[in-house]
Amino acid sequence: MQFGIFTVGDVTTDPTTGRTPSEHERINAMVTIALKAEEVGLDVFATGEHHNPPFVPSSPTTMLGYIAARTKRLILSTATTLITTNDPVKIAEDYAMLQHLADGRVDLMLGRGNTGPVYPWFGQDIRQGLDLAKENYGLLRRLWREDVVNWEGKFRTSLQGFTSTPRPLHGVPPFVWHGSIRSPEIADQAAFYGDGFFHNNIFWPAEHTRRMVQLYRRRYAHYGHGRPEEAVVGLGGQVFMRKNSQDAVREFRPYFDNAPVYGHGPSLEDFTEQTPLTVGSPQQVIERTLSFRETVGDYQRQLFLMDHAGLPLKTVLEQIDMLGEDVVPVLREEFANGRPADVPDAPTHAALVAAAESADSAKGVTTA
Amino acid sequence: MKLVAVSAGLSTPSSTRLLADRLASSVHGALVAHGHEVEIHVIELRELAVAIANNLVTGFPPPQLAAAIDTVTASSGLITVTPVFTASYSGLFKSFFDLIDPEALSGKPVLIAATGGTARHSLVLEHALRPLFAYLRATVVPTAVYAASEDWGSGGDAYTEGLPGRMERAGAELAALMAARPADAVPEDDVTALERQLSDLRFD
User: Fold this and answer.
1) Does the N-terminal peptide bond of residue A166 adopt cis geometry, omega within 30 degrees of 0?
2) How confident is the prediction along chain B (204 residues), in pLDDT tens digits per residue?
3) Which of A212, A285, B51, B92 is surrounded by the fewest CB atoms within 10 Å?
């Protein structure tokens, strides 16, 4: 199982000081957070992609390429890459390039994006969001898997004899997760291709996450990729920890009360009871996170949202230290406990290459 | 069958709640007279005011609000009563119905009613409540009941029946629709239906 962090990349005023970081500070903070993730032994760093203030990460492969050069082990991912408003040709090229530079430490999570005004800035229309996601992803897959592509569709100019370069590293495209909070069609798309499904598991009750993951697992089996338990599932989560749980609650409350998404609404107590948000001691975080397994079954990737709502960088780095030192080692051990042998491991480039080679040798093909 | 009354009255005691109770007993009487068994539930939106605001902010209903929404959508007939605020239904009343899946009340027999300090606002029922439930594709009974302060203590006039007569007529209309309507099929445990209940996020 893989553990990591995902970031939205919002520039938010710290409600306790009234200070707003500059874009430059925020971008550097995201990089520092990624480096810290590797330092404390986490497996994954994933960045959001946004094209409107107050968010800064408009160019994920630029950022991830820079982080790749400064890390050795960390898997670099996205949460999410916009499959609707990005040209699939550009996604194919950018992420293949990143894959080469990062020696395969790359996967990506595709999402539709739900901000209506962003679509027309890229020549698209949110009302076509689902159709865009389907057509663009169909093309993206072909660009990574076929050396020469002839293609015609509804949303972009057709391609004749097109080769996307560079070709994926070792001929194996990056693993793809499909991220969706609420669209059953996206869970179905992930299942159709036998790709991973990621639920952000942050804003709403766990019951909703359970239903979406169950749908994905059921459809995964329906499309003949294996049994429901063999599907590849990732979850988000958000936590705030201090040794003493009262300290965690006291320190996090002003950030919660003013958070861009749920602030000025329910109390911290109600929200932690009704959603997967956990504010407390590392032990409480461990227990809550282990309970996700009861909700969705044994799964492959757990990402935590740590840097949001205006939390200062220093605090975020302390949180990641605790995550790496006190929480994740226990989670690794506990999640491995009683995990059935047929539950797949989390995807890595090396594993995908090995799988491709064994499939080729079964067919009697040799690769150069 | 299950009769549900939603009252958006804010004071205690409330004339809006009183009207909801009187209408419920009118519908109850008409149904029992025809041999039906009726269970009455009254939902006071005042008790859900904070939960409704929280749902608007977070996109999901807290448990007590989720239970109220389920009660409304699973009813065989619905009575909705709002005080008139600034020439329309109250914001609380509208916010509650904003949080219900727009298809969940399709075909549901509904009786609309309102209270106000003056009879001059009675057309609120026709220009605000009836279009709201028409949008939701509910079946709204022809008689809508408006109770102004003076209605509680006076009879009718040459043009209109008094409040008791109007309540009885409206109650009989709702009872007839409820009795004529086949029981709802049990909805599937469907993630698509769940999805519709959850409102948009601004942050993905």
Assistant:
1) yes
2) 999 999 999 998 999 999 999 999 999 999 999 999 999 999 999 999 999 999 999 999 999 999 999 999 999 999 999 999 999 999 999 999 999 999 999 999 999 999 999 999 999 999 999 999 999 999 999 999 999 999 998 888 888 889 999 999 999 999 999 999 987 665 555 554 444 444 433 333
3) B92
Task: Please classify residue A87 by burial: count the beta carbons closer than 10 Å to its beta carbon, then call 0-12 exposed, 13-18 middle and 19+ buried.
Answer: middle
Domains of chain B: 2-197 (3.40.50.360)
Model confidence pLDDT, tens digit, residues B134-176: 999 999 999 999 999 999 988 888 888 899 999 999 999 999 9
**Nearest residue in chain B measured CA to CA from A78:** B204
Ordered DSSP codes for A97-139: HHHHHTTT-BEEEEE----TTHHHHTT--GGGHHHHHHHHHHH
User: What is the pLDDT at residue B183?
Assistant: 73
**Distance linking the first and last C-alpha atoms of chain A:** 31
**Residue A368 counted as domain residue:** no
Domain with A294, as residue range(s), is 2-362
Q: What is the CATH number of the domain that holds A104?
A: 3.20.20.30
Please give the angle made by the CA atoms of A43, A47 and A49, to the nearest 5 degrees: 155
Q: How far is A184 from chain B (nearest CA, A)?
A: 6
Looking at chain B from residue 174 to 203, which residues have their Cβ under 8 Å from any Cβ of chain A? Answer: 191-192, 194-195, 198, 200-203
B198:A204 CB<8 A: yes
User: Among B181, B178, B117, B184, which residue's Cα sits nearest to residue B151?
Assistant: B117
Could you tell me if the ipTM is greater than 0.85? Answer: no
A181, A184, A265 member nearest B192 (Cβ):
A184
pLDDT at site B190: 52
Is position A184 within any domain? yes
The partner residue sitting opposite B204, judged by closest CB among A113, A211, A274, is A113
Q: Which two tokens stand for residue A327?
A: 């929480």
Task: Please judge whether B202 and A261 are an interchain contact, meaning their C-beta atoms are less than 8 angstroms apart.
Answer: yes
Contact list in A for residue B63 (CB cut-off 8 A) is 274
Structure tokens at A45: 């760093």
In a domain, A367, yes or no: no
Is the Cβ of B159 closer than 8 Å to some Cβ of chain A? no
Chain B residue with the nearest C-alpha to that of A181: B204
Contact A338, A271 (CB under 8 A): no
Residues of chain A with pLDDT under 50: none
Q: Give the per-residue pLDDT at B156.
A: 80
Nearest CB neighbour to A266, from listed B54, B194, B200: B54
B62 chain-A contacts, CB cut-off 8 A: 266, 270, 274
Cβ of A114 within 8 Å of Cβ of B204? The answer is yes
Contact B200 A114 (CB under 8 A): yes
Q: Per the structure, how many domains does chain A have?
A: 1
